[in-house]
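Example record for the data management plan.
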Amino acid sequence: MRLTILGCCGSFPGPDSAASGYLVEAEGFRLGLDFGNGTLARLQTVCDPFDLDALVLSHLHPDHCADFSALTVYRRYHPWPPYDPRQRRLPVHAPHEAPSRLANAYAPHEAERLETDLSDVFDFQPLVSREPRTLGPFEVTPVPVAHPTEAYGVRVRHGDVTLAYTGDTGPCAELDELADGVDVLLSEASWTDGPDRPGGLHLSGAQAGALAARAGVGRLLLTHVPPWADGDAILAEARAAFDGPVERVTQGAVYDI
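Corresponding structural encoding:
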């Protein structure tokens, strides 16, 4: 399994970094995880976006799905597509409101919003809590997490290797289930620890590290660090809480798991 970091900024893109977006590959199958601001540009440095075989959206905040509108333009209006995207629609596994919410984001005005339907080039499939699904060579299992909208972490298994991605989440019991025994935990870490941090929103570096320690993960990768946050301090917190390998991911980094 190969993980490529398309973007890793939290909440909004940074000066030279896209927001959340990841590519997971195995046996020639390309699975996208989230598609935030700037990720379509980064994907084009790795492969033709038509080569995506499926896309999973953890939740519908813009920093995790804003480039979906651009992907719609790419799939609808590219003059020389390698196949007919209306005959080979891209499977999109996402929260239940994704078809309407993403159509709202795409439509330029109210009249068009009322009739916009993106299902001509996308095949929307709602995520169902803890229901595994087979996407190419992967088994993908969504686990609900604590965030102010329908949101999931996902376990991605290929053979005997498992990657867990938290999406956006505050501390919750479900994270231990999500991360239990995985080879790699790709965890959001949006701020340093402190008593004034709001609950049900994000993890600190210390909380991400403690999760990795409790769950017995093989490796911890930190992501979703906002441009205004102290990334070095967040990394130091995680390392203090987890004695396994820990690093903060960077855009373009590639991990063979």
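Summary line stored alongside the record: The two ends are 5 Å apart (CA to CA).
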